[in-house]
Amino acid sequence: MTTSTEPGPDGNGTGSASAADASSCTDESEAKRFRELARVFGAQRADDLDEDELAGYPEDDPEDDELGDGAGCPYGGWWDDEAECPDHAAAGREIAGGARLFPHHDTPDPDSPAVIKVRDAAGLLAAVPHTIGFRPEESIVVLIFTGPRNRIGPSMRLDLPPAAQQRRFASHVAGLTLRHGTTAALFSYSSSSLGRQVLRTVLKAFLRKGIRVIDAIAVRGNEASFLPGPDGRTEPSIAVPADGHPVAAALSAANAFAGRAVLDSRAELAASIAGPADGIATNIARQRIAAAQQRHREARRAVPTGIRTRRGTSFTTAQRIHAEQLLHACVASFLDQHLVPPDLAADLAVAVEAEVSVRDHLICLVIDDRETAWTPVLSSCLQSVNPSDAVALCTMLGVAAYRAGGGALAAICFEQALTHRPDYRLARLMQSMLWHAVEPRALDGMRSLDSSEPAATPARR
Description:
The strands form three sheets. This protein has a seven-stranded mixed beta sheet, with helices on both faces. It has a two-stranded antiparallel sheet with strand order 2-3. A two-stranded antiparallel ribbon has the order 10-11. Helix 9 (314-337) runs antiparallel to helix 10 (342-354) and helix 11 (356-368) runs parallel beside helix 13 (391-403). It is of the alpha+beta class. 47% of the residues are buried. The longest helix is centred in the middle third of the chain and has 24 residues, at 279-302. It folds into two domains: 9-55 and 272-458, no CATH class; 81-262, no CATH class. It is built from 15 helices and eleven strands. InterPro entries: DUF4192.
């Protein structure tokens, strides 16, 4: 699956500190691990993760932004004539050689039969919902092309900015894009003229930074219209492709095989992990958590005091073993029943909430195991647990989704975690990485922080 990110500050993660328990970021062990994690990801100051950028987009480039719609632009317009791209197609511009999508593959084989070719603007439009996981609304979407064979690689979806921030927003998006490639397709989705206005501003920023833009398409309702090309001509509008379009059908099949589906909106994606929906279900979930906490306390008392490890953390080692068992039980239940039983989900939520090192250990297991479909398993867990009781589990799902290329779900997870605990450092760090379009493979660096030891053995008498 192509990598999807959702960079762009929206106010989350900057609230005041909330009450914290032993697993909160105010705990010294959590603060220490956070500093280590930040160093792994190259953050220079672990306690100040670009607060200015969290509060708003970076400042404008000093260059004046007065380019027209391609006319006279310094980079030859949207087309590089040396690429031998055709002038115009009847419905949008064709992609020379075709673009290539690699569904559910992190490092795809270019000769894999799973490769899906996209040859025109209609194909790109059909691919957008499948690359980000839902049908965008009031958004800018960027598909970035990489490699000599025009692989559609990272994708970004961002909320349309306020009118006063359009230029800063556009410069920010262009900068993020340049981290991954120099060729892109741009889309705006809006029920008003704002989408086209923002798209035009983003196009200018891309051209100014030397990014080759294959197409810039404004979607309003069921109509997709093109911005004028460098010669001043505008192609006729086309209808937004239906689900039966060959590209959409192929991607739907690939996503279904991988346990994913395209949802109607970002709100629907958020609702899928928002926990119980009514008061009665919320109370029942609260009771399950209380029972799980009681089981956790009883398990702690049952740990023999003679058990020791080289690091001297008998209970932590027992917790890790128990948490691994819970995680694997969740996977087995999901494979068998297509859901995780609520009591089991509550036990896992309590286990990862109780000890930071246990949470990090499970995250490392999830990152290492690329065969298991962790996103649907952990999403099923969150459906039966109140969000306030599952901050660690929600962040864990966010990391799993991020590593799998699901930037939209990852962004929602970090937002939800920070809504219920604004000072939760791992969620803030992950959110900052997402905003700055850090590649998912960078998360593999988290494995160096897993200090787990082999299973504990009784100490010699």
